[in-house]
Automatic annotation (TrEMBL):
PANTHER family xref list: SIGNAL PEPTIDE PEPTIDASE (PTHR12174), SIGNAL PEPTIDE PEPTIDASE-LIKE 2 (PTHR12174:SF75)
Protein name: PA domain-containing protein
Any single biological process term in GO: membrane protein proteolysis
Domain annotation PA: ranges: 102-170
Domain of life the protein comes from: Eukaryota
Pfam families per record: PA (PF02225), Peptidase_A22B (PF04258)
Signal peptide limits: 1-27
Membrane-spanning intervals of the chain: 197-215, 250-270, 276-305, 317-340, 346-367, 374-392, 429-451, 463-484, 490-509
Membrane topology, record value: Multi-pass membrane protein
Subcellular location: Endosome membrane
Function field: Intramembrane-cleaving aspartic protease (I-CLiP) that cleaves type II membrane signal peptides in the hydrophobic plane of the membrane.
Gene Ontology cellular-component annotations: cytoplasmic side of endoplasmic reticulum membrane; endosome membrane; Golgi-associated vesicle membrane; lumenal side of endoplasmic reticulum membrane; lysosomal membrane
Amino acid sequence: MDLKRLSWVILVLVSISLVCHPTSVTAGDIVHDDDSAPKKPGCANDFVLVKVQTWVNGIENEEYVGVGARFGTAIVSKEKKANQVKLTLSDPRDCCSMPKNKYARDVIMVDRGHCKFTVKANIAESANASAVLIINNQKELYKMVCEPDETDLDIHIPAVMLPQDAGASLEKMLMNSSSVSVQLYSPKRPLVDVAEVFLWLMAVGTILCASYWSAWSAREAAIEQDKLLKDAEDEIPNTKPINGTGVVDINTASAVLFVVVASCFLVMLYKLMSYWFVEILVILFCIGGVEGLQTCLVALLSRWFKRASESYIKVPFFGAISYLTLAVSPFCIAFAVVWASYRKVSFAWIGQDILGIALIITVLQIVHVPNLKVGTVLLGCAFMYDIFWVFVSKKLFHESVMIVVARGDKSGEDGIPMLLKIPRMFDPWGGYSIIGFGDILLPGLVIAFSLRYDWLANKSLRAGYFLWAMFAYGFGLLITYVALNLMDGHGQPALLYIVPFTLGTFLTLGKKRGDLKVLWSRGEPERPCPHVHLQHSHELTGEK
């Protein structure tokens, strides 16, 4: 296997190992329930993220994010209904005993420790505070719950926990400024964000483009094969079917092995996730993105620069390369380098999506599913893989391995690059809607196969399988987003919904139309041999 093909195998494995779900990267779950902290009267709030907007001397300043307590009054959801209230340091700092002076409906900031959360809230309310901000003694947030034997839960002010670094910043503001005020509110996410619509269109459009390119290449290869058979009638016994240039057909064993190796790769990503490891993934992604972007651009531009695409020059190490490829390559390399250098800026997602889509389209052009049997095994294994690493892995690792890897936890990075992402434009919490490459690549292999079959069988769009497979994929992805919103943003394995719809539709239609046997084993329709027609026509005309 040459270096170029090896790099493709590595990149595909990385992509398949990230068969992750649409979710939000930076915003997190806005509402979260916890069965380990059961509700009871006076202690029945959902755990919600809370925005804490600050003003220093009347000028808007930093915004912090905390988490609301199980007890106390609910946080208002609309910013316009949240009042700006003066922030005051508690005295004593832990608020475990009554303060020396009453507060004028101020929001007080207290330190965690020395007494229960509910005791702090009750004392703050008794001192006429309007809310209490409890500063954690760690950088992480902590869920404030009630003890099983607690009874004094008639608390009528909100309680919010902030991380340690936010508390340090607020204390610095209070020490250096004459007036600091805060505004507490917990905005709700919109039911549907436009980012999800665009991401759906992006996923469907990518498979659509890749399928037509794959089918067109397969048809061209079939036409070329027919021409060779007609031109070499005497050599027919030794003539072998011609596969598409550079195409790799996967078999059942490799389909199973693919998912096994992908699982190992995912565990390795989970265990080794760090800043330097993400940097390696970025380099691999750039290599694949450059190759994909170059392949797509050369295919598009070759229509207008046919002579340049058919003229070759020998380059050391890379072999024979067309002049068009040589001209396009610097642009592709520069594009990837610029994206890698500025990938943390707000608009870097555009470059990441361009490189990702080009990579996916090229992989779907190179890797083919030869029949429905291989496609069923591949999607079936991926279906179980997705469910295991999103849900079952929680039992073994105490957290969802897939979600942790997709978010890039412990790496200091905003997620890994093997994702298509779009910012949530109308979401007050921000973040991104994302979809893993595997959620497009794996179903895309089967959908591209359906269009190749339709074209070789000369089926119309409605009488074929591609239209219905495409519709099933789009509907399955739509159901994924519906489930995502119903679960308050909790990650959902997309293949849990996509595979049954896509594969089920394909198998049902094949059975109903009587094509299932051919689809399952051969993967292509019976085509009469050109030399048979040629020989028959010679006999009719009396030629020898």
